[in-house]
Design brief:
Layout: E1 10-12, E2 18-20, H1 21-27, E3 33-38, E4 41-45, E5 52-57, E6 60-64, H2 70-81
Antiparallel strand pairs: 1-2, 3-4, 4-5, 5-6
Length: 82
C-alpha cells in the first residue's frame, strides 16, 4: 500500500508547522481563552488536546486536567492568575 500526498496542498503554517492547508486553516479556528463556566469555575481551552479547568477554593486553586505539556499548563496558570 502506498500513500501519496499532493504536494500542492502542503503548506507551512504561521508557527512553522508543515501540514495540509485544510488542517492549518482548521487550527486557526481555535482561540486560547479563559472562560467562566460557573461561579468560581474557569476553563482554559483552545490550545491543546485537554482543557484545563480551575476551581477557586478557599485555600487556593483546584486544577483538573493540568494539560498535555508543561508549556500549556504554565500558560493556563498564567492566564488564570491574571
Amino acid at each position: 500500500m502506498s500513500f501519496q500526498v499532493d504536494r500542492d496542498t502542503i503548506e507551512t503554517g504561521p508557527r512553522g508547522e508543515i501540514a495540509h492547508r485544510d488542517l492549518i486553516d482548521h487550527s486557526g479556528r481555535f482561540e486560547l481563552c479563559l472562560r467562566a463556566v460557573n461561579d468560581g469555575v474557569r476553563c482554559y481551552d483552545g490550545g491543546g488536546t485537554a482543557n484545563v479547568t480551575f476551581i477557586e477554593a478557599p485555600d487556593g486553586l483546584i486544577v483538573i486536567d493540568s494539560a498535555d505539556c508543561r508549556e500549556y499548563a504554565a500558560e493556563a496558570l498564567t492566564a488564570m492568575r491574571r
